[in-house]
Amino acid sequence: MRILRPSDASALAAAYVRNREYLSTWEPMRPAEYYTESWQAADITSRLVAADAGEGFPFALFAGDTLVGRFNLAGIVRGPFQSAGLGYWVDSNYAGRGLASAAVRTIVDTARDVLGLHRIEASTLLHNAGSQRVLLKAGFRQIGMAPQYLEIAGKWQDHNLYQVVLHE
After folding, report:
1. Residues forming a β-bridge with 88
2. Is Transferase tagged as a keyword (predicted)?
3. Which end of the chain has less Cβ packing within 10 Å, N or C?
4. Over 90: is that where the pLDDT of 168 sits?
């Protein structure tokens, strides 16, 4: 796992194309352009600007040369909050192998030890048991449920809310 690079745009677009149907249940509806190299290059560029400002970090997970996962530590807020949000997915061909759990644990350690954050939050759809297991294995605790929290797959859906406090 490493920070995304502009040169990863093609691999990222290919991963999204490969997983388009699989991710459609778990993500917002995307325009056709989202699955292109040019869209992903622009997105990577904007996320790297945010990384330079310390506001978020776009990670990619690789199996050899194949991009098989995307993890975003985003919305970093400093001051008394010292918090960030986490979003992620793993390629359908690699799901269920513990890769997401290991990557999220690495991000938690980095957020605590390198970035000095106090808290990370994440959310899952109520029926996303796999993602819930990933978060629990990484030390997250469920802290509530938010009705109609995010528009996923074309409709506003309830989400379970999780957090990990990094300095307990």
Report:
1. 71
2. yes
3. C
4. no
Structure tokens at 122: 């994440």
Q: Which helix (H) or strand (E) holds 71?
A: strand 66-77
For the chain, the domain total comes to 1
Contact of 113 with 150, CB cutoff 8 Å: no
Helix, coil or strand: residue 104: helix
Beta bridge partners of 120: 84, 164
What span, in angstroms and rounded, lies between the C-alpha atoms of 18 and 69?
12
89-121 pLDDT, tens digit each: 999 999 889 999 999 999 999 999 999 999 999
The structure tokens listed for 42 are 């622009």
Query: How far apart are the C-alpha atoms of 94 and 103, rounded to whole Å?
Result: 13
Q: Tell which wins on pLDDT, 167 or 15.
A: 15
Q: How far from the centroid of its chain's Cα atoms is residue 102's Cα? A: 13
Do residues 158 and 145 touch, judged by C-beta distance below 8 A? yes
Q: Find the CATH number of the domain harbouring 120.
A: 3.40.630.30
Q: Which residue range forms the structural domain that includes residue 132? A: 2-165
Q: State the virtual CA torsion across 114, 90, 9, 4 in degrees, nearest 10.
A: 10
